[in-house]
Design a protein that fits this description.
There is one protein chain. By secondary structure, this protein is mostly helical. It has one domain (2-235). The chain is 77% helix and 5% strand. It has helices at residues 2-32, 39-56, 58-64, 66-94, 102-124, 150-172, 174-184, 186-191, 196-222, 229-235; strands spanning 129-130, 140-143, 146-149, 224-225. The strands form two sheets. The protein has a two-stranded antiparallel ribbon with strand order 1-4. Strand 2 and strand 3 form a beta hairpin. The relative contact order is 0.21.
């Protein structure tokens, strides 16, 4: 029974990664009705940005934020960077092509994915990169005979917090209402005064930011990242 509960915790932790990635895909699909193949690469790029921040800013991060605070700080900074990248990709690869139809937009999404993936490989190299072990405390807890790491607890808490924030934004805010209305009927939403370009800007800011934070958590959990991991997660 102990092993069952330990594997359940492992499954919840890994499943939270897939859930967060799927939310990013679903936001774009709901509005544009196409699969954003570049989203997996936003996730990958976010993990590499977080890796770079933790490697080169480890002394500053541990001094000012502590170990766990450093993880959250890296997630937030990676999210801001990827929100900017997401807007650039939307302006360059989606907005000019989308009026031509869904098929050209899908091809453009594949092209954006290939460009991002190869850019990551050129900048950081084709080999696996390891997250700094000294910034990832390997603390184990024994709760009623169940062995669980503090990192798993932190990841689960952060994942549920991110899901809760996204739920609140989509269900309880004006921007969220605009996204839901556009997903139901873009033309009618436009007639009601909803700016489609602003909706695109919103989802291509929020989606990549969410993917980036997930990427940092995946890097912290597995302690290594590769330039193809976003594509692999997307296929699954």
């Amino acid at each position: 029974m102990q092993v069952v509960f330990e594997q359940l915790i492992n499954g919840l932790t890994i499943g939270s990664f897939y859930a967060l990635i799927a939310l990013g895909y679903s936001m774009v699909y709901g509005v544009l009705k196409l699969i954003n193949f570049a989203h997996g690469d936003f996730f990958t790029l976010g993990s590499y940005v977080g890796y770079t921040l933790l490697v080169f800013g480890s002394a500053f991060i541990t001094t000012h934020f502590g170990l766990w605070g450093g993880m959250v700080a890296a997630m937030l900074m990676a999210a801001m960077c990827l929100a900017f990248v997401g807007v650039l990709v939307e302006r360059a690869a989606y907005r000019p092509i989308y009026p031509a139809g869904r098929l050209p937009a899908v091809v453009s999404a594949l092209g954006a994915s290939i460009v991002l993936q190869n850019a990551i490989m050129v900048i950081w190299g084709p080999r696996y990169q390891a997250y700094p072990a000294k910034l990832i405390p390997n603390v184990h807890l024994n709760i009623w005979g169940i062995n669980i790491t503090v990192l798993q607890i932190v990841i689960l808490v952060l994942s549920f917090v991110l899901m809760g924030i996204l739920y609140y934004i989509i269900q309880k805010t004006v921007f969220g209402a605009a996204v839901r209305a556009t997903a139901l009927d873009k033309d009618t939403a436009s007639l009601m005064g909803i700016n489609f370009k602003k909706v695109l800007f919103f989802i291509f800011t929020l989606g990549p930011a969410l993917g980036a934070m997930t990427g940092v958590m995946v890097g912290m959990y597995y302690r290594q990242i590769s330039f193809t991991m976003g594509w692999n997660y997307g296929l699954k």
